[in-house]
Design brief:
Layout: E1 2-8, H1 15-23, E2 32-38, H2 46-51, E3 56-58, H3 66-80, E4 86-91, H4 98-105, E5 110-115, H5 126-147, E6 150-153, H6 156-162, H7 165-169, E7 173-175, H8 182-185, H9 189-199, E8 206-210, H10 219-232, E9 237-241, H11 247-256, E10 263-267, H12 272-278, E11 281-284, H13 293-300, E12 304-307, H14 330-341, H15 351-356, H16 361-372
Parallel strand pairs: 1-2, 1-4, 2-3, 4-5, 5-6, 6-7, 8-9, 8-11, 9-10, 11-12
Helix pairs in contact: 3-4, 9-12, 10-14
Length: 375
């Protein structure tokens, strides 16, 4: 049996983790055994992974304890490299290139780099970003030229961020779309009515933003847009789903804007497929994304979606996705959103269209399985 080590943060509110569990986690095969390299230092998913038959190895987080992180990887490969035919690195940037070097040094035959973002996954000071950028481009060259032999990305933009121009020009990478269980998220009018009654949202337009509270998600701009929307409709609601380091700052901004009666913080939720039914629209002014799972899920639920034009959107349903440039002011965003709602017709679930665009979980699972199945 082939053994494959899959790196990831393995956090319940992580899009990267959702991708791993939606793809690798759905593969049931006697040909391949997946194990988890948990690079966040967290134990929160260990029990869940072990129930799937995965072994879980925990590494100190590189952004907090880099030396301990690198030592742990070197020690791991000294002990376990001979057990694995492949390692699948799920990465947002190449600055942390030593684990890839160790994988090559200790003889892992197949080293896959999988790009999930178009910028660094976490924030930092201007000096930190400058240092990380230099290391990122060094890591790019070393990994793409000498160490890795398979290259995957969530979008073309994510590929261009993580891989060298040579990899891009020679088309040595493959796009693996973030497939989901489309039927699970499909719009359901009956569920919508139940959710809106439960939450007290009846007769109110409900906007939402789903994601970790980090600078790249641009929550402050979402609030600025929403403040403009409330000036036209003081019954409107903004539901914020997620957690993260900037949550307290965002809550303070809500108070400063006088929006406490219009903004709801729901924290991390495990019932997004139900909540989507109760929403009317997603505000999505992210600064950086690879290709968001929330973006795909929202389309399956038939939501009106307003993403920033700067993030990768790849293929999408043009009748419900309305990109707006981040160079536009919050007032201009609000005006376009209001204008779009004036033309909205009956809400539908474009499941067949999304399947044709490649967002069916089964397609993603088949792609990943084909990478590592025995010849």
């Amino acid at each position: 049996m082939k053994k494959v080590l899959v790196t990831g943060d393995y956090l319940h509110d992580s899009g990267e983790t959702a991708f791993i569990m939606n793809s690798f986690g759905k593969i049931k095969s006697e040909q391949v055994q997946f194990d988890a390299a948990i690079v966040s230092g967290s134990k929160e998913m260990v029990a869940e992974l072990e129930l799937k038959g995965w072994h879980a190895f925990i590494f100190p987080a590189a952004n907090r304890h880099p030396l301990a992180h690198w030592r742990a990887w070197q020690q791991f490969f000294k002990q376990h490299a001979a057990e694995y035919e492949a390692i699948h690195f799920n990465y947002s940037a190449m600055w942390n290139f030593l684990p890839v070097y160790f994988a090559k040094k200790y003889g892992i035959p197949v080293i896959t780099m999988h790009s999930h973002n178009t910028f660094f996954g976490t924030a930092g000071s201007s000096l930190q970003i400058k240092v990380l950028t230099s290391l990122h481009y060094l890591g790019k060259k070393l990994i793409c030229r000498y160490w890795a032999n398979q290259f995957l990305a969530a979008s073309k933009e994510a590929a261009e961020w993580l891989f060298t121009p040579q990899i891009i020009q020679q088309q040595r990478y493959k796009i693996v779309r973030n497939g989901i269980n489309l039927d699970k998220f499909a719009y359901n009018e009956e569920v919508r009515q139940h959710v809106r009654q439960e939450q007290g949202w009846t007769d109110r337009r409900v906007y939402a933003n789903v994601g970790v509270f980090e600078p790249r998600k641009n929550h402050q701009f979402s609030l600025a847009i929403f403040r403009e929307l409330v000036r036209k409709d003081d019954t409107a609601l903004l539901v914020l789903v997620g957690d993260g380091p900037l949550q307290a700052e965002v809550k303070q901004q809500v108070e400063t804007f006088g929006l406490s009666d219009n903004v709801i913080f729901l924290g991390v939720r495990r019932d997004l497929e139900r909540l989507y039914q109760g929403f009317d629209a997603l505000l999505f002014p992210s600064v950086h994304e690879g290709l968001s799972l929330v973006f795909v899920e929202g389309q399956a639920a038939g939501l009106e979606i307003f993403p920033s034009a700067q993030i990768p959107l790849d293929r999408y349903i043009k009748t419900i996705v309305h990109p707006i440039s981040l160079t536009q002011s919050p007032g201009q965003w609000a005006k376009q959103i209001e204008s779009q709602f004036a033309t909205v017709q009956q809400r539908k679930a474009p499941i067949d269209q999304l399947r044709e665009l490649g967002y069916d979980q089964a397609q993603t699972v088949a792609t990943i399985q084909a990478l590592y199945s025995e010849e």
